[in-house]
């Protein structure tokens, strides 16, 4: 009798355990995007004691050796950066007018004629994608219509060796000597409507590059492992360093050694919201909204968000996309709610997320091993609004972020 009772007990225990396993498996398979909108918890201030969490990225300011790649003389012609047609507002962008050009710029910014700019309904026909390639410390741009980039010459590229004029003994560097070598491991790029590229590098330096001739029009050194850069009104830029601070620089001259500093733990992402006159900042588990008083950032609102924040990008006039350690989210700037972004797999360790403002196609750059041990991969995931998935590949590359070549 005791024997049969024991068998019955074991059987019930086993069935209960199997039932629990099945439930866990179903939970793991559940699409997290089905959870719906979640209201972000509003904070009274930015928590300056925020723990680093599981962000294992190195904060070393010493970048790798600057690449000696070719200067792009054989690169194919690339259309000018297309202007986004989503109503996104830009305001007083550095270099937008001839008077805005820093002293080091040889030529003023040349505004493209209407006939040379692709119209919004033509963008889908010839889109381009820019990547931050950390093995060679270069920014590279490739056509979106080709999924194999391995043996293809970039349509446009920039590296520290491009920041010079002349050749041989007559070559003159545009980068100050003390910043040479500080452009290792490029970590962020943003293309602007006025034909400039914003660049941040984990090596410590940031720059504005004129895409027409790849001339460096501004350079600064915020240090602290810069992960993001953005333009601000008043001929200014702001940078985000993962060591825990933001820097506002004036771009009125070719360089600025004065940083208007604002503390923000694990700062990783920046988006200027022209319509709301607010700067959105992502870092750790906090998303902050700042107004601008001259060169000073003034906290407006702060929210607690999931994760350990990595990237922040605009998605139309009312939404932001942000990635964290284990997921990708959309955040509504008006309702201050967020939800898991659908149509992404896998979701771990996404370093870069960007949606095309017109075609709504999504670019995802993530870690190679999905364990946050290698910062980048040789491929970029691509998803269409209809749910189709493809992959762009450049074998041997270490791609940290990917952005659509669209001015915003």
Automatic annotation (TrEMBL):
Residues 18-118 are annotated as: Disordered. InterPro entries: DUF6528 (IPR045383). PROSITE patterns: PROKAR_LIPOPROTEIN. It comes from the Bacteria. Residues 54-73, 88-100 have a biased composition (Acidic residues). Residues 1-24 form the signal peptide. Keywords: Signal. Pfam families: DUF6528. This is DUF6528 family protein. It comes from Pendulispora albinea.
């Amino acid at each position: 009798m005791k024997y049969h009772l024991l068998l019955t007990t074991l059987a019930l225990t086993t069935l209960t355990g199997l039932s629990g396993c099945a439930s866990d498996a179903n939970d793991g398979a559940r699409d997290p995007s089905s959870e719906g909108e979640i209201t972000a918890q509003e904070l009274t201030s930015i928590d300056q004691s925020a723990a680093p969490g599981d962000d294992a990225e190195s904060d070393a300011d010493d970048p790798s050796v600057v690449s000696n790649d070719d200067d792009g003389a054989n690169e194919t012609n690339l259309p000018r950066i297309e202007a986004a047609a989503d109503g996104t507002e830009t305001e007083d962008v550095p270099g937008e007018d001839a008077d805005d050009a820093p002293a080091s710029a040889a030529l003023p910014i040349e505004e493209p004629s209407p006939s040379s700019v692709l119209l919004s309904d033509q963008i889908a026909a010839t889109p381009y994608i820019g990547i931050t390639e950390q093995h060679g410390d270069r920014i590279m741009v490739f056509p979106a219509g080709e999924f194999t980039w391995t043996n293809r010459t970039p349509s446009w590229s920039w590296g520290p060796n491009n920041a010079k004029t002349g050749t041989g003994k007559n070559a003159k560097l545009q980068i100050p000597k003390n910043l040479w070598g500080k452009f290792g491991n490029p970590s962020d790029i943003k293309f602007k409507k006025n034909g400039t590229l914003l660049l941040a590098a984990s090596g410590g330096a940031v720059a504005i590059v004129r895409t027409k001739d790849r001339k460096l029009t501004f350079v600064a050194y915020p240090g602290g492992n810069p992960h993001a850069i953005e333009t601000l009104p008043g001929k200014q830029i702001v940078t985000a360093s993962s060591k825990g601070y933001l820097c506002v620089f004036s771009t009125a001259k070719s360089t600025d050694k004065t940083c208007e500093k604002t503390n923000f733990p694990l700062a990783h992402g920046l988006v200027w919201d022209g319509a709301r006159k607010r700067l959105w900042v992502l870092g750790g588990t906090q998303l902050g909204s700042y107004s601008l008083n001259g060169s000073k950032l003034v906290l407006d609102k702060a929210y607690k968000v999931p994760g350990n924040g990595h990237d922040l990008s605009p998605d139309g006039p009312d939404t932001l996309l942000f990635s964290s350690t284990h997921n990708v989210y959309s955040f509504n700037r008006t309702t201050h709610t967020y939800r898991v972004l659908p149509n992404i797999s896998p979701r771990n360790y996404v370093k870069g997320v960007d949606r095309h403002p017109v075609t709504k196609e999504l670019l995802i750059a993530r870690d190679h091993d999905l364990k946050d041990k290698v910062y980048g991969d040789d491929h970029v995931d691509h998803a269409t609004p209809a749910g189709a998935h493809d992959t762009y590949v450049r074998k041997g590359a270490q791609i940290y972020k990917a952005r659509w070549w669209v001015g915003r």
